[in-house]
Structures are given as structure tokens and as C-alpha cells.
Specification:
heterodimer, A: 363 residues, alpha+beta, seven-stranded antiparallel β-sheet, five-stranded antiparallel β-sheet, 11 helices, 16 strands, globular, B: 238 residues, alpha/beta, eleven-stranded mixed β-sheet
Chain lengths: 363, 238
């Protein structure tokens, strides 16, 4: 069987997210329920979730989630981790044996801090160091895949329908102030666990419905900056683009949205002078990071999320609200499944980012 | 017949719909393809029906007391769909007959590829606003946007009538500031335009218990393909 990375696949999908602006912790039951009425959007070849605020006891450590093919791969990777990090805790990620999920790899998590001496020697900050190390493991150590690497957050993904994947990972036992989720419909897929969404790097995670046609142009550009696209999926490249624009270039979320879903030149023409200048600048400087083709994505990050459609809005996205919770999904029914009385149902326009942040100090 | 859709999948629900005459569905949550291809019954729905509601509808009547999702009335041939809330993207996609009446707003690509043939003349009325690409590639039929929304956003967004080569659109606005593509022409509605619109609005208003009077007195802009445009030639003079 060909694996992710050896074959390119297009995909349809379902996405959903919920966030409490008060930082209130919610268990994973609600976000699992959201995926049930959207079952038809997936085909059982990938499902996943990201939860933010789930590891308060290790909040200052990077939580690395890893898949290993076998114990030999685990052994070599663990030696590599010991050489690069202080590991304060490591354990098997708890799962539940259910008939719907089979063929699981070895799944473990490691709470780590980069060795101070190594940081000093390499003259990089800890986030850059972790990002580089993740790239190295995923591209150079066979049989190992880091699928989550942020602080106080984690991605959980598998081959299967999302509602089954959620039960498999016992998400009802975690408390998160923000959940995102994904059901995958790859049409020509080998369907590997690492290829499911969310894709994560540091605390950034992406769930994505769509198919970007600019993949190779984006990949060639982003690989100049040390990112390695090992999985040949468009979602992986979106994740690295967001990390590059937000963390390394220091753009705001709105600016990053104007890069990847840049308005048409005809639309820019009609803007105010100030907007025209800003949008022209972003389109010109980051022209290789424009994502063409259909997408709806939810970007999760520490303390918030951003939902975004392609500029033509070729994929569905609905938002709603109830008290301190904001909901985002491919379909209104997913929102109603989480909260029957959701209010303020809206349909964001193409390229119009929906940014929700938790109150400062509450996450 | 009352059908409780809770915990029922859409295949089972559609099978039951096919076997019954008139039906009322409650607790609908994302059930897809409801009423698809049906011709001989009346279906009322409480809750949120899933995508492709009334696809290929062939004479049946569907009424939804809430919002509907994407692709309402996809390729419908005859019948009527009444939505008391909003619809998602691509409502009336490739519709070739029948009527869709929406009380609220519509998403992107409303009425895209709508067409008409002989006695088939589809009608799609949006009560609020419509997203970008309204009536893209429209080839026939009538699209009406009433702009009764209250969120202050424009009545139609970008690229209305892009690639339009048949049919007509009525937009209840003077359309100042709206950029139409080169292949359409637009003019303020005249008496003969309003005479065609009147029965449509009267039927629409009867569905939602609205007074058609003020609407009929409003200023509409009529959008039609530019008769000199090449698209029409491409489809007709071959």
C-alpha cells in the first residue's frame, strides 16, 4: 500500500469547532456530537480533533504526540528525544478499543522542554527549536510521526469516522476551552493515520475542507524557509504557511487571511486608499502564498481560532453563538447538534476571517 | 403522517416519505436529499434539513419552518419549496422549473445555471440579501431579490449575473454601487416588468403572510443579458 507522501489525494470533508470566550472547559462530547449529522461528508478514511487547554498540569511543556510503526522506531525516536529535550513525563495516549477503529500504530505523548544548553548553542528560541526538531523527526526518522507539538493543546487523529475517532481517544475525559474537528473524505487515498486532520505545528492546528490547486506553488515557496512537506497534502502546507506568516513574519490574523485568501484585484480597486495600499502590499509580497481553489479552514492557536473560506467561497461555513460559546461548522446542523438553541446564525463571506479569542487571562 | 426524524438516518426517512402521502417531519437535523424527485405530496419540516433538499423535485411541495442548508432545489423540475428562514449556498442550482421562495437570506451562487424551456419557467425569490455570484450563468427563469434584510449589508454581493445569458433578475434597489459584468444590462423596472413580477410577489407574500403592496410600490432594477453579448449566440444560434 502506498502511504501518505507517496501519493497525492484530493479531498472533501466536514469541519466543526467550538470555543468558549470565557475559557470555560468543555469535554469532547459536544464536538463529537457535531460530527454525527455530517457523517456523509466523510468516508471513514480519517477523522480528528484538536483540543486547547487540555494539559493544565503540563502547561509549560511542549506536548509531543507521536505515532510509531513499531517498537524499534519508538526506541530510536525516544533516544533522539532524550538528546534534544528534557522529558518531564511520557505515557501512552489513552484509547478505547472499539470495532470501528483498527490497525492503530503505537500512540504516545511526551511532555518536553528543549535543553537550555542546546537553545543557547543554536541561538534560537524554544518555539523555533521545537518546530525544527519536529520537521527533522518527520522527514528523517523512519516509522515516526509527530502529529501534535504545542503547549497545553493536542491533536488526536486516526483512520475512521470522526465520531468513532473521538470515542477511540476518550475525548469526553478532556476539558478544552476550544475544540476543532474534522471528518475526511479523501477520494484516492491510502488513508494513513498521519494524513488525517488536524495538522499541527506548535500550537497551530488546521482542519480543512477543500482542495487547493496552488499546492505545489505554495510548497516550493514555503520549503525555502525550512519547512518539509512530507505528506503531500494541501492541509500540511496551509499549516506551515500559517506558522510562517504568524510566528515568523509576525503578521496579524487578518493580514494572514488577506494573504491566503487575497481579494481579487477588481475588489481591491474599490477599497479605500488605505485598504488598497495594505492589500496590494500583502498580495505582492506574499504572492506565492495565495491559496487558490476551494477551502474552508479553522486555524486553532493558543487562546483562539480563526475560520476562513476561500475568496470564492467554494466550501460551506456557518457560525453561531450561545452565551460565551461560538460555534463554526460546515453545516448549521452540526452547530444545532452541539447547541440546539444556538443564536445569531451567520454565513461568513469568502475571504472574510472569523476570529474568536478567549478573554485575556482565561486560557 | 407525522414523522419524528430524531435518531433516524436520511435513507430511512426518505423511504418513509416515499411511502406516505402528506407528511410532517419534526426534529429534522441534517437529513439530506429530503423529498428528492418527489412529485405528489406536501412535506412540512421543522428543524434543519440537510443539503440538497428537494433536489430534482418534480411537483411536490416542501415547506421548512427554519433555515435550510446548501443546494436547495438542485435541478428541480416542478413543485414549490418554501423556506421560512435562510438558505445556504447554491439554492436553485440548475433549476429548470417550479418555485423556490425564501423568507430570509441566501448564500453564494444563488440560482446559478437556472434555465427555462417551453412551459418550464422557474422562479426563485429571496426575501433578504443574496451572496456573490447571484444568477451566475443564468440561462432562463426569474430571480427576485427583495432586500428585506436588516443587517445593513448590500442586497447582492460581488459578480451578480456573471456569465448570464438568459432569463431575468429583479433586484429591489436602484443598484447604485453594484458592479455588474459587461455581459448584462440593467434598467429601472417599468410597467411591463412590474406586470410580470406582480403575480410572483403576490404568491410569495401569501406564503409568508406579507402585504405585497409596499413591495410592489418599491423601485426594482431589472437585469437581463445584453442582447449583443456572445454567450446568447453560443447557446442559441448553432
Amino acid at each position: 500500500m502506498k502511504r501518505e507522501g507517496e501519493i497525492r489525494i484530493p479531498s472533501g470533508c466536514a469541519i466543526a469547532a467550538v470555543i468558549s470566550t470565557e475559557g470555560r472547559r468543555m469535554d469532547g462530547g459536544g464536538i463529537i456530537r457535531a460530527m454525527i449529522p455530517m457523517h456523509e461528508r466523510s468516508n471513514g478514511l480519517g477523522g480528528g480533533f484538536a483540543g486547547y487547554g487540555i494539559y493544565p498540569e503540563f502547561r509549560d511543556f511542549f506536548a509531543l504526540h507521536l505515532f510509531f510503526d513499531d517498537s524499534a522506531a519508538r526506541k530510536s525516536c525516544e533516544q533522539f528525544l532524550k538528546d534534544h529535550f528534557e522529558i518531564v513525563h511520557d505515557e501512552k495516549i489513552p484509547t478505547r478499543t472499539i470495532p470501528a477503529i483498527t490497525g492503530e500504530p503505537i500512540i504516545r505523548r511526551y511532555f518536553v522542554a528543549p535543553l537550555k544548553s542546546v537553545l543557547a548553542a543554536q541561538q534560537v528560541d524554544e518555539r523555533e527549536y521545537v518546530a525544527r526538531t519536529v520537521m527533522r523527526i518527520n522527514s528523517q526518522i523512519p516509522g515516526c510521526h509527530v502529529f501534535s507539538s504545542g503547549k497545553n493543546m493536542g491533536c488526536f487523529k486516526a483512520v475512521g469516522y470522526p465520531e468513532d475517532v473521538g470515542r477511540f481517544y476518550r475525548l469526553e475525559e478532556y476539558g478544552a476551552y476550544c475544540w476543532t474537528s474534522h471528518g475526511r473524505y479523501p477520494t484516492n487515498t491510502p488513508g494513513w493515520w498521519g494524513g488525517a486532520h488536524p495538522f499541527g505545528l506548535l500550537d497551530y492546528s488546521i482542519v480543512h475542507n477543500g482542495e487547493i490547486s496552488s499546492y505545489d506553488a505554495n510548497r516550493r515557496y514555503i520549503e525555502m524557509f525550512g519547512y518539509h512537506c512530507t505528506l503531500k497534502t494541501d492541509t500540511e502546507v496551509i499549516t506551515y504557511i500559517m506558522d510562517y506568516l504568524l510566528r515568523r513574519q509576525g503578521l496579524t490574523l487578518e493580514e494572514a487571511a488577506s494573504v491566503v485568501a487575497a481579494p481579487f484585484w477588481t475588489t481591491i480597486e474599490n477599497k479605500s486608499e488605505e485598504d488598497k495600499k495594505r492589500l496590494t502590499y500583502l498580495r505582492s509580497v506574499f504572492s506565492s502564498l495565495l491559496l487558490t481553489g476551494p477551502f474552508s479552514i479553522v486555524l486553532g492557536f493558543e487562546g483562539g481560532l480563526m475560520a476562513l473560506n476561500d475568496r470564492l467561497k467554494l466550501r460551506a461555513m456557518v457560525t453561531g453563538r450561545k452565551d460565551d460559546r461560538v460555534f463554526i461548522a460546515s453545516e448549521e446542523t452540526a452547530i444545532r447538534a452541539m447547541e440546539p438553541d444556538a443564536e445569531d446564525i451567520r454565513y461568513p463571506a469568502g475571504g472574510e476571517p472569523v476570529i474568536v479569542q478567549v478573554k485575556e487571562g482565561c486560557f | 403522517m407525522l414523522l419524528d426524524a430524531r435518531d433516524m438516518d436520511y435513507t430511512a426517512l426518505n423511504t418513509m416519505l416515499r411511502q406516505e402521502s402528506d407528511c410532517r417531519i419534526i426534529n429534522c437535523l441534517g437529513h439530506r436529499f429530503l423529498g428528492a424527485g418527489m412529485s405528489d405530496k406536501r412535506i412540512t419540516i421543522s428543524g434543519i434539513p440537510g443539503n440538497a433538499l428537494g433536489a430534482y423535485l418534480d411537483g411536490a411541495e416542501i415547506e421548512v419552518f427554519g433555515n435550510a442548508q446548501d443546494a436547495v432545489g438542485d435541478t428541480m423540475n416542478a413543485g414549490r419549496i418554501v423556506i421560512h428562514g435562510n438558505v445556504g449556498d447554491a439554492a436553485g442550482y440548475a433549476m429548470r422549473g417550479g418555485k423556490i421562495f425564501v423568507r430570509g437570506d441566501a448564500g453564494y451562487r444563488t440560482g446559478i445555471h437556472m434555465k427555462a424551456y417551453q412551459e418550464k419557467n422557474p422562479v426563485l425569490v429571496i426575501g433578504g440579501r443574496a451572496g456573490s455570484f447571484l444568477g451566475e450563468y443564468q440561462a432562463g427563469g426569474t430571480i427576485v431579490v427583495l432586500g428585506m434584510h436588516t443587517d445593513g449589508r448590500p442586497i447582492v454581493s460581488n459578480f451578480p449575473g456573471a456569465g448570464m445569458h438568459g432569463g431575468r433578475m429583479y433586484i429591489r434597489s436602484d443598484c447604485a454601487g453594484i458592479r455588474f459584468p459587461v455581459q448584462v444590462q440593467h434598467h429601472p423596472a417599468e410597467e411591463e416588468d412590474m406586470a410580470l413580477l406582480r403575480p410572483i410577489l403576490e404568491e410569495y407574500c401569501a406564503c409568508f403572510r406579507l402585504d405585497p403592496g409596499p413591495l410592489l410600490e418599491s423601485r426594482f432594477t431589472v437585469v437581463t443579458p445584453d442582447s449583443a453579448n456572445p454567450y446568447k449566440q453560443m447557446y442559441v444560434a448553432n
